[in-house]
Design goal:
The protein has two domains: 5-54 and 218-273, no CATH class; 87-213, no CATH class. 19% of the residues lie in helices and 32% in strands. The chain is built from eight helices and 14 strands. The strands form three sheets. It has a seven-stranded mixed beta sheet, with no helix packed on it.
Length: 290
Amino acid sequence: MIGGTTIQRMIFTVSKMTTQLVNGLAEYRIGAPTHDCPIGPGQTISIRDTGKRFCCVCNRPTRSLFGQGLCFPCFKTGPENSECIIRPALCQGHLGRGRDPDWERRHHVQPHVVYIANSGGIKVGVTRQSQIPTRWIDQGASDALIIAETPNRYEAGCIEVALTPSLGDKTHWQRMLKGMDQSLDLHAIAETSISTLPSHLKSMTVLHLPAVSIRYPVTTYPTQVKSIKLDKHPVFEGKIIGIRGQYLILDNNRVLNIRNHSGIEVELLLSYNSVHPHPAEDLDNQSSLF
């Protein structure tokens, strides 16, 4: 502690921030699975890229990272990078096939949901039922609604493919990070979209579930967005003014996508006033380290 300011120092391999939804507010933690800490507005952050890289699957050191923080062998043959991760309709886990049938059974031959979400605009998506609401928070959705429940990833993917032409399947990340949320009636959109599905897909849809609204710890949204990447800025510091999705929103209109830097080892200094150790709950009276 320095002058009433608590300093957290960690060296860890980056993975996505962990989240939870508490009374409608997304709360975040950053760090290694065995040692993390709360992160939120008012804190000052300093990050240094150590130059080391580790595969997020096998944990082996590697010179280069591919996909979401994978070494080349895991990228080429690991089930974590199967084509159906991005395109669920290509999943063959329910047929006992895939890069690793046992992994497919544990992850893809499980209850899935199809949802629509407002992430700076409407989109349709697929995730395991157990990943709700984590998936929505990771995408920065302000509102989301489950519209179908399926026994596996493949069938959820078929519904997604059928709805994508009218709804889209991409997060509008720049609009989301500027706080440009539209007011949308998700139930009305769902009813219209579901009516276009063929009967064998429509039988898995649901319209009775409530929409979920999510608030984010953001004091001020930027008017412009300047994305920071560690390969170009290996050392930087700034004040956190918000978090949404997997993005830190910093002063001077800067944003950092934490998840996109998975596998990179960093040294992180995080400061906050020791009287207020939970920054996501108290957005004022935060002191600075730098």
